[in-house]
Amino acid sequence: MIRTENIWKYFEDDKPVLRNVSLHFEQGKTNLIIGRSGSGKTVLMKCLVGLLEADKGRIFYDDRDFSAMGFKARKVIRKEMGMLFQGAALFDSMTVEDNITFPLNMFTRMSRTEKKKRVDFCLDRVNLGAVHGLLPSELSGGMKKRVAIARAISIKPKYLFCDEPNSGLDPPTAILIDKLISEITHDFNITTVVNTHDMNSVMEIGDTVAFIHKGDLWWTGSKDDVLHTCNKQLNEFVYATELMRTIQNQTQEGE
Amino acid sequence: MKLFYHIGRYFVLLWLILQKPEKTSIYRRQVIAEMDYLGLDSLGIVAIVSVFMGAVVTIQTAFNTDHPLLPAYAIGFATRQAIILEFSPTVISLILAGKVGSRVASEIGTMRVTEQIDALEVMGVNAASYLILPKVIASVIINPALVIISMFLGISGGYMAAALTDVVPLSNFTYGILFEFSQFDILYALVKTIIFAIIIASVSGYFGFYTRGGALQVGHSSTKAVVFSSIYIILFNLILTQILLA
Ligand SMILES: Nc1ncnc2c1ncn2[C@@H]1O[C@H](COP(=O)(O)OP(=O)(O)OP(=O)(O)O)[C@@H](O)[C@H]1O
Ligand SMILES: [Mg+2]
Questions:
Q1: Touching B: A residues 148-187, CB under 8 Å
Q2: A40 CB less than 6 Å from ligand 1?
Q3: pTM, two decimal places
């Protein structure tokens, strides 16, 4: 479980990018943060993991006050985190196998065979076969994302962060990645936070949904509530595409 | 103002670099890999430059000290002193600043702009230390070795020039090379080299680590790494020469 209390983040003095965001991300659920491009999703996620410092507010990981911690204390929590970056951020000079073993080498005392088994397990879990020896530049975009997920889960994280896991992927692959994240979350009882602006993802995997608009938290709820909200900004977001509008009209006619 | 900002941030980075490593075995492996990249790779250029500079220094000294009052062995002596005291430690370090500095800054800079450094930090790895410390240690080990090789090859180059031309009689030259040899000179050269090695690896690491932007800025960082490591080498050369030889 992750909780934020009144997070504010400024890059310029009078224009906060995040305004008083208080959120609750539940364990064993995929918690979605949705919002338009530039609304502050990535900044919020970076504040959560400590890549950016929030200017005001507090962040709790299972009641451990992350925001008050120093470098050393944070390291303990960081070892429980996995993160999937928007651009995958694989170590490009290392093979797929070395990428996945990296956290294991760094933080565990596993034997060679144990590590090998873990790599195979993680790759299998993300439906990738024999790609061990390939370099990231030799993978397709979707494969990179999957390897990045495999790396993120290799040390069995308690918290998983995914920044737009399916951006730049074709719809079936996007859904595949979404499903993968959702399954991993439920299988391993992880607290997962996912940034997205894709309504497909919301409907597929959104256990809880938080809507951010221009740095303000406008709405929280479940994916079923998303379709029936009277929040104007959220409605505009949800029904931005022709497809969603058609669905909306059909359901209204049916009622 | 900008200068103080950079100096302050440089020392913060140094402090981060010197934190206790997560796992020494991984660092050890990194150091060996870096020694290979940073050192052995530079052996060729160091060798070529040293031999030719040694030869040129000998010929120049011979032409410019052609005076009846100066003994002929002075040429060998001057060549040796120039190579050991200044040429090998300083010029070779400057060459390494160009070769190694740009490589270190662009490698780390690329990792920064592709979020690989963020990925390391989220995992709980001290990225500054993981990326820069092995390079500093490898440079501190390998650069003195390169400089010693350079001294040897430089003097050999001078010897070849003396043997192949008639600017100075060979026996006089050899006498000059061995004349009043002091081990302190070598020590002095190595102390300078070690400090230059730390400057090259850490300054280049600094510019790479704080790169912001994309491919263009990575290029800028690597240029800045070379320019500033060279400037600091020359600056510290002056200071150290004053302190150590005074
Ligand atoms: N390092 C930074 N310095 C200054 N401003 C920043 C920085 N990072 C983000 N911003 C600003 O913060 C705002 C929110 O950016 P953010 O990246 O969080 O958007 P986002 O919701 O993730 O958008 P997208 O869906 O396109 O990824 C933007 O206006 C952006 O310009
Ligand atoms: Mg974003």
A1: 161
A2: yes
A3: 0.89
